[in-house]
Q: What sequence folds into this?
């Protein structure tokens, strides 16, 4: 129970009668032991290694009806006399046989056997992914947090978070969104692997995961039209069809993201539209394919044991596949065959450069859920082609950035196991392993998916972000103690706001510490609270009162910052309303344990506008966190004129910014 160890399916002694049919007719045998993977039988029938046998197994117990199973002879040992012992490996077990064998094995296990492995034997069985042996079926699916340094290198918060997840027992961790080309980054805080200078930091991360017992896999990505560059790489200059762009829809906000977040997202996409007007040339396509291959080679040199190509979410590989975003008239567009050409060339180029025996997985978009988009029938054709190329696995997902805000898609993605039906459909047409994901919050659901053969591996992303100990708790029989993802989307909203992802289910100190350490690289950096005389200012103070660590002894200072339009503001004077609010703020913070000496007021005259003066203060001061109350503007006003909080969010780079609605 002290850790995760490689185990085969647990075997228990049996003594059951077995009837079967082989090359020479019917035979009878005795099962000496049995597991979900196969059994050992004793027989005098002349079986041979590699032979297929149809069997009827009668397990001891009250329900001893015969179970139909089939298996392949893996080994034969001659016993005394005419009998021999034969090792049979089961083919796919039908659900009745699977359930009966599982119950029989669980009842016969020793008392000290890990209870989770007994309850969910498929989930905690080892799995061979090409040359890799995974200790069980729980892998971490890629999830972007915005924790990297601004130059794309590995930061301490990123390293610490992945280390914690690895120590929690994930068998393989797919490190998210390493950018393969300088023009391919969708965020200033995404990892980069487009140059050899990033190898040492990535190697340190890979070594950390290995040391904690996880297989390190690196996801490679090019954002295409979503890249934050002046002229993004695009298959063809097709306008993005932004969902919910009319203002009345935004004001209703059916997805629960908050009007400010949606407006900021729409403005960002619309600004990008003006830049996505140039079709990639054949030379640029060739260079992009080469960038994936070179990045994969760097990942291998850095110690990663696999790579995953990001072909989902609407990034470059998916943009070439979709008829909505690829309207080219050359060999890289038009028919499905043409649209598949670039991603297939990327896979082939990567596999050629990293060499045989190095697994190359694929993050697979099975459905855009958009009219005229890439859909499941096309995805099945593409999956077969990837299978033929020899990808190591397909990690199946649905939706893109254009469809995820549709109310019906947003609602679908909040259901438990929401992506399993897509994985199931793809698994039926390929021979390679399939990873499924999508709000698989319990080991019971994960085991059921495996029992029904709808996927081979269970991908957890937000589940492990919320509770890195998910696999360990499940193995040790503490599944009721797993903190489950509630689907609140706050981590997603944080990334949209260009903030580090945090989870509301974490304790308050951790949330503040992560935001401050990612943005300011200081866990005890000073805090600025904007005071403007409105009730929103007190909301910001209340946020600070509830979520700041309190008296930690690290000398953390809280500055109540006010930009004044009154004459004489430079001498620190404020009007009566603001003075009363400052006094109330001091009392609220002091009552929460913040030493009065650590609370100061700073008043500056307005020079650059309120937003500009706040931004200048944050850039010049020692702040790691800014808390701003969002003023009560309508959605239309914010879209037309922006807001102070939005301007600060866009402009401040080295300080965490929390906007309180």
A:
């Amino acid at each position: 129970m002290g850790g995760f160890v490689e185990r085969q399916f647990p075997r228990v002694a049996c003594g059951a009668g077995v009837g079967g049919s082989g090359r020479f007719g019917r035979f009878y045998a005795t099962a000496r032991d049995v597991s979900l993977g196969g059994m050992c039988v004793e027989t005098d029938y002349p079986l041979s290694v590699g032979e297929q046998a149809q069997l009827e197994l009668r397990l001891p117990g009250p329900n001893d009806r015969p179970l139909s199973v089939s298996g392949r002879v893996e080994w034969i040992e001659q016993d005394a006399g005419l009998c021999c012992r034969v090792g049979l490996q089961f083919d796919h077990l039908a659900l009745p046989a699977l359930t009966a064998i599982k119950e029989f094995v669980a009842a016969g296990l020793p008392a000290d056997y890990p209870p989770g492995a007994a309850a969910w034997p498929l989930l905690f069985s080892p799995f061979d992914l090409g040359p890799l042996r995974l200790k069980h079926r729980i892998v971490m699916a890629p999830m972007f947090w915005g924790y990297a340094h601004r130059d794309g290198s590995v930061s301490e918060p990123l390293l610490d978070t992945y280390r914690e997840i690895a120590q929690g027992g994930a068998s393989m961790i797919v490190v998210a969104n390493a950018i393969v080309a300088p023009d391919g980054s969708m965020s200033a805080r995404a990892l980069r692997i487009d140059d050899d200078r990033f190898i040492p930091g990535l190697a340190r991360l890979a070594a950390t995961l290995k040391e904690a017992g996880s297989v390190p896999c690196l996801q490679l990505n090019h954002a295409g039209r979503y890249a934050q560059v002046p002229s993004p790489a695009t298959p063809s200059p097709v306008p993005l069809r932004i969902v919910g762009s009319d203002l009345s829809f935004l004001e209703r906000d059916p997805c629960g993201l908050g009007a400010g977040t949606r407006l900021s997202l729409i403005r960002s996409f619309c600004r990008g539209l003006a830049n996505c007007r140039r079709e990639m040339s054949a030379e640029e396509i060739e260079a992009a394919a080469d960038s994936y291959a070179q990045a994969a080679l760097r990942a291998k040199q850095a110690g990663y044991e696999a790579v995953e190509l990001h072909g989902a979410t609407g990034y470059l590989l998916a943009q070439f596949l979709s008829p909505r975003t690829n309207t080219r008239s050359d060999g890289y567009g038009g028919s499905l065959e043409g649209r598949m050409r670039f991603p297939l060339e990327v896979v082939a180029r990567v596999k050629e450069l990293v060499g045989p025996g190095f697994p190359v997985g694929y993050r697979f978009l099975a459905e855009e859920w958009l009219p005229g988009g890439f859909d499941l029938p096309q995805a099945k054709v593409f999956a077969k082609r990837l299978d033929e190329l020899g990808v190591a696995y397909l990690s199946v997902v649905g939706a893109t950035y254009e469809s995820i805000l549709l109310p019906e898609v947003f609602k679908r993605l909040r259901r438990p196991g929401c992506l399993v039906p897509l994985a199931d459909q793809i698994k039926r047409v390929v021979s390679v392993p399939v990873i499924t994901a999508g709000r698989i919050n319990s080991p019971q659901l994960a085991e059921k998916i495996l029992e029904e053969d709808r996927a081979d591996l269970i991908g957890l992303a937000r589940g492990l972000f919320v509770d890195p100990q998910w696999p360990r708790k499940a193995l040790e029989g503490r599944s009721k103690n797993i903190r489950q993802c509630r689907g609140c989307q706050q981590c997603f909203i944080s990334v949209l706001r260009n903030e580090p992802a945090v989870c509301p289910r974490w304790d308050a100190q951790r949330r503040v510490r992560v935001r401050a350490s990612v943005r300011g690289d200081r866990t005890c950096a000073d805090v600025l609270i904007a005071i403007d005389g409105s009730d929103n200012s007190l909301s910001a103070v209340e946020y600070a009162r509830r979520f700041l660590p309190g008296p930690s002894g690290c000398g953390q200072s809280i500055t109540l910052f006010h930009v004044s339009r009154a004459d004489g503001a430079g001498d620190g004077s404020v009007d009566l309303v603001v003075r009363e609010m400052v006094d109330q703020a001091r009392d609220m913070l002091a009552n929460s344990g913040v030493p009065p000496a650590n609370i100061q007021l700073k008043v500056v005259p307005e020079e650059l506008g309120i937003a500009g003066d706040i931004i200048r203060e944050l850039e010049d001061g020692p702040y790691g966190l800014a808390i701003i109350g969002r003023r009560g503007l309508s959605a239309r006003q914010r879209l037309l004129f922006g807001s102070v909080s939005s301007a600060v969010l866009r402009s401040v780079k080295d300080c965490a910014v929390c906007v309180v609605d």
About this structure: The domain at 507-660 is CATH 3.40.50.620 (Rossmann fold). The first helix runs from residue 95 to 108.
